[in-house]
TrEMBL record:
Signal peptide, first to last residue: 1-22
Similarity comment text for this entry: Belongs to the bacterial solute-binding protein 7 family.
Domain of life, per lineage: Bacteria
UniProt feature coiled coil, ranges: none
Keywords: Periplasm, Signal, Transport
Name assigned to this protein: Solute-binding transport protein
Species per Swiss-Prot/TrEMBL record: Sulfitobacter indolifex HEL-45
Subcellular localization: Periplasm
One protein family per Pfam: DctP
Lineage per the UniProt record: Bacteria, Pseudomonadati, Pseudomonadota, Alphaproteobacteria, Rhodobacterales
Main localization category: periplasm
Length: 199
């Protein structure tokens, strides 16, 4: 089970509630507009706009139009955006000490994952980001199971031995190397381009 985090500028919730003027809350994300999380944010925007009589609304900028994970964390910290809807991979930029929370197979099951994210460890992660960058975790949601796409059947970790696979960060590289895979680190866009060309 993997999780999705919603990072926010530390001041946004207080500012939004206290403000009587209209405000667009800018949400930046690398997720594409077809992602279920973006659809949920669009529904939230409808409800927020309705219940605040138009005083608050979301401006959702999806698909990495504002940059990748690093750029979005920087924009959040500088106040250029108000919310970053992200996978926990953002931790490699905002709280590298806690990056292990986004590793594969770290949680026994979904309940265990939510207990960790909503418990002392999740709170400590959010506190670290608030102290270092002025941002914090506003919510954690369900993302689904981790999947491995391969040209050979992979049913157990042993099946990864010698398999060349592309991963997005050094933590993932270490995890899959421990299973015997051969994972060079590549950016997400490069992975999809390479996979579509069977490289």
């Amino acid at each position: 089970m993997t999780f999705r985090t919603t990072l926010v500028a530390a001041a946004i919730s207080v500012a939004a509630v206290q403000s009587v003027q209209a405000k667009d809350i800018t949400v930046g994300t690398i997720l594409n507009s077809n992602d279920v999380a973006i659809q949920a944010m669009q529904k939230w925007d409808d409800l927020l706009t309705e219940r605040t009589e138009g005083r608050l609304s979301l401006n959702i900028i999806a698909g990495g139009a504002l940059g990748g994970t690093r750029e979005l964390v920087q924009q959040l910290a500088s106040g250029e955006i108000d919310v970053n809807l992200s996978a926990p991979v953002a931790l490699q930029e905002a709280a590298p000490t806690y990056q292990c929370l986004e590793a594969e197979y770290v949680f026994r099951d979904e309940d265990h994952g939510f207990a960790v994210w909503r418990g002392d460890i999740g709170k400590a992660t959010s506190t670290r980001m608030r102290e270092d960058y002025g941002i914090e975790i506003a919510a954690v949601g369900r993302r689904g199971s981790r999947n491995v796409t391969a040209n050979v059947p992979v049913k157990t970790p042993k099946d990864l031995t010698g398999v060349k696979m592309r991963v997005t960060n050094s933590l993932r590289s270490e995890v899959f190397s421990a299973f015997g895979a051969l994972p060079p680190r590549l950016r997400c866009r490069t992975i999809w381009r390479s996979a579509s060309r069977c490289v």
